[in-house]
Amino acid sequence: MSKSVKTYSGKRLNVTYEVERCMHAAECVNSGLRSVFDNTTRPWVQPDGAEAAAVMAVIDRCPSGALKYQLHDLPQSSPETNRITPLPNSALGVRGEIKLHDESGEIAEQTQRLTLCRCGQSKNKPYCDYSHHAAGFSDDGVLGQAKLDAHFDDCTGPLAVHPIKDGPLKIEGKLSVYKADNTQRMFGNKVFLCRCGQSKNKPFCDGSHSAAGFKSNDE
How does pLDDT run across 85-118, given as a tens digit for each residue? Predict the structure, then answer.
């Protein structure tokens, strides 16, 4: 889980960009806020190019959490509802009060947004690094079968993400799993999600990683 973080300082807030974590969703450069996010210039992020609220709104749409902000006089925005979405032909989008662990069980990161590899090809596991594009990964983000029948009026609180060595992602906490088009959702307290790309019951793990010889040793 290597990190290369660049910081862009402004008068009201600082913006950080974690290069390896970017999945190229382009929410920033396609936001219309070219005075702040313009990848044809250097530096490509200009935090003072717009009102702080506008900059924050764009960064909050970054699915991977590669972009973050820190206001000089206020803390980061409050945690979101714990939500997992298999993005079409792409990564697992995770939002909430996330505690990402490494394979030894230690907390590697605490954040509110992640995109996690589910094609099995990322060179920066467990993060998505856009390898699904070159690999031709195909899945439309529907929900397979799972024993998730809980319901929470308040789906918040700590969400623990555990990448299992050579296996799936185990996620624990009050959680919701949404179909990509938002027409279906499930609630539960624990779920095992495929990250080898081979499950026949995506986004859930069905044990296919064993037969596929999936390895997570580049984490």
Answer: 999 999 999 999 999 999 999 999 999 999 999 9
pLDDT recorded at residue 75: 56
Burial code (b: 16+ CB inside 10 Å, e: under 16) for 99-117 equals bbbebeeeebbebbbbbbb
The letter for the amino acid at 14 is N
d(CA 192, CA 201): 11
- Which CATH number does the domain housing residue 66 bear? 3.30.70
- Asked whether residue 219 is domain-assigned, the answer is no
pTM over 0.90, yes/no? no
Q: Looking at the structure, tell me whether residues 191 and 150 fall in a common domain.
A: yes
Which candidate, 87, 89, 168, 61, places its Cα nearest to that of 125? 168
Supply the range of the domain harboring residue 127.
Answer: 83-212
Tokens of 52: 């702080």
